[in-house]
Amino acid sequence: MVFQDPFASLNPRQTVRQILTAPLVVHRIGAKPERARRVNDMAASVGLPLDALDRYPHEFSGGQRQRIGIARALILDPELVICDEPVSALDLSIQAQTLNLLSRLKAERGLAYLFISHDLSIVRYFTDRVLVMYLGRVVESGPTQTLWARPLHPYTQALMEAVPDPSRRRHAAPLTGDLPSPSDIPTGCRFHPRCPLASDICRTSDPALAERDNGQSVACHHA
User: Fold this and answer.
1) Could you write out the DSSP letters of every residue in 5-51?
2) DSSP readout, 93-155?
């Protein structure tokens, strides 16, 4: 896993070498020389110089710290990496560098990412497939470009309308009401108190996620 905050997710009392070696020790992978070689190779793969391995996290910038977090996640050669808002705490220029690094590592290592983000521009640029969630449940999914061209769920449409776009001719009305408490989820469709299309069936029947012919799936009575 790659965590959101590169300042809080690294042990300040450990050097980079200790941070990258720890997963290998926990999972009992390799003897000491093999672990040292893997740490050196991993540091080089994410663009960290070898002299960085004996320094502490506070000596690095936010972007460099996130490279350390990425290296720690990849040191065990995983097939799936969970990226929880991995660039939201970084400056825009550093965000681009980090996303490019993740893209390169994906191609080189055959990785799959579960990429969690609230930034729709990053989602559109980085992902192959999107799942839109509301109150902890997937309400729509589909290939990224298909979903962007034709969002089916009212919540997905509202999210995209909220992104500033000077070329857009028509602007939908913003959503009304507040997000309900997760401990008191509405009956029926959980989006119905804020949905402009809500009808009686939405208040009593929770729609299932249904697949469409174009590869999209949507949970809505009126999609």
Assistant:
1) -TTTSS-TTS-HHHHHHHHHHHTT-S-HHHHHHHHHHHHHHTT--GG
2) HHHHHHHHHHHHHHHHHT-EEEEE-S-HHHHHHH-SEEEEEETTEEEEEEEHHHHHHS--SHH
138: left (phi over 0), alpha (psi -120 to 50) or beta: beta
Residue 163's pLDDT band (boundaries 50, 70, 90)? confident
Run of H or E including 217 = strand 217-218
CA distances from 113 to 28, 93, 123 (A): 25, 21, 12
Q: Are 7 and 58 in contact (CB under 8 A)?
A: no
What tens digit of pLDDT does each residue of 141-162 get?
A: 999 999 999 999 999 999 998 8
Its pTM stands at: 0.86
| Cα–Cα distance measured from residue 20 to residue 16, given in angstroms and rounded to the nearest whole number | 6
Mutual orientation of helices 62-74 and 92-109 as an angle, nearest 10°? 20
